[in-house]
Amino acid sequence: xxxxxxxxxxxxxxxxxxxxxxxxxxxxxxxxxxxxxxxxxxxxxxxxxxxxxxxxxxxxxxxxxxxxxxxxxxxxxxxxxxxxxxxxxxxxxxxxxxxxxxxxxxxxxxxxxxxxxxxxxxxxxxxxxxxxxxxxxxxxxxxxxxxxxxxxxxxxxxxxxxxxxxxxxxxxxxxxxxxxxxxxxxxxxxxxxxxxxxxxxxxxxxxxxxx
Amino acid sequence: xxxxxxxxxxxxxxxxxxxxxxxxxxxxxxxxxxxxxxxxxxxxxxxxxxxxxxxxxxxxxxxxxxxxxxxxxxxxxxxxxxxxxxxxxxxxxxxxxxxxxxxxxxxxxxxxxxxxxxxxxxxxxxxxxxxxxxxxxxxxxxxxxxxxxxxxxxxxxxxxxxxxxxxxxxxxxxxxxxxxxxxxxxxxxxxxxxxxxxxxxxxxxxxxxxx
Lengths: 211, 211
What we know:
Chain A is α/β, with parallel strands linked by helices. Chain A has helices at 20-30, 61-69, 88-96, 107-116, 130-139, 145-159, 174-188, 196-209, and strands at residues 9-14, 35-37, 40-42, 56-58, 73-79, 82-87, 100-104, 121-126, 167-170. The relative contact order of chain A is 0.20. At the A-B interface, helix 5, helix 6, strand 9, helix 7 and helix 8 of A face helix 5, helix 6, strand 9, helix 7 and helix 8 of B.
């Protein structure tokens, strides 16, 4: 019987300003119970309104380094003096439970995850054009030209890794884009390489019928 | 600008009794203008009601062998004394026009096409289980057990090639299945390897902005 297999680990990266956060929030709302968003662990202090286990798992430096030592993180990085990482246990539990797990991380982390879990699906979210990305970054109207230029430089850097991803997700109309992400992940469940066992069972059964 | 690229060549194979013909007919009807179904050439005689250029391009043996000699076929095979093949010109014209071209052929042909056009997407249509396939073959109620058994043996043979395909299409509910095929092919347009040029343009543009 060919049925939905184990959950798929999907890493979503994309330009700052690509709207990936909004897309994921909408995806999880629209297909409740089907997806799980991975919550990162961090050593930085909680900001006002942030709840442990919702925005982040807040950990001390000692706890975090203990997790590193125990290989309890799928990937981790240091950023401005703090650790950020993806706890392995949560990801594996959700995948076993058949949920498709979404990690929102940048390219370096994405490549580390892919190395550890070669089955990972890598999606890169982009506006339809460089021009449009520029307009979105400028358009907020709240930033100085210095900030905008540093964002554009950062985007140019982010673009360096795009070829390592499996699919581009073009965020033009949010609604369409959410559906596209959903179809890419669900389509992935039908990939032959993820159904080798079911295929081989089916073949054996067919052979037994025709004897 | 990341836009829809060239059409995608999709080969659809599947068990006899999988309903692949019905799925494709429905797909073409529902998304008129977006897909093109490749018409095969053959040396067999037209049956009543068959129209040249619709069911098949009917060709003489000399004409067909001329096409082989000119490499004018994407793939061809001999079956019960007649030639069957896929004319290359039609496929290439439709792809250039941005249409996704569907070829309905069996596994040997599928592998030959993939060899010539490595970008080909290979879909394999299957009922949800071997039991269900058996029921469908038996269920028509019009065949002798001999015919049914030879069909099951053929299905067991067809199953040998399943691993060479990219995706399984599970035909349980027709409506759902047609949508699934549509999403698999459209999702394929977003594959990074099919957008290398657009990605590289975007990167250059972003670099020019941030200078």
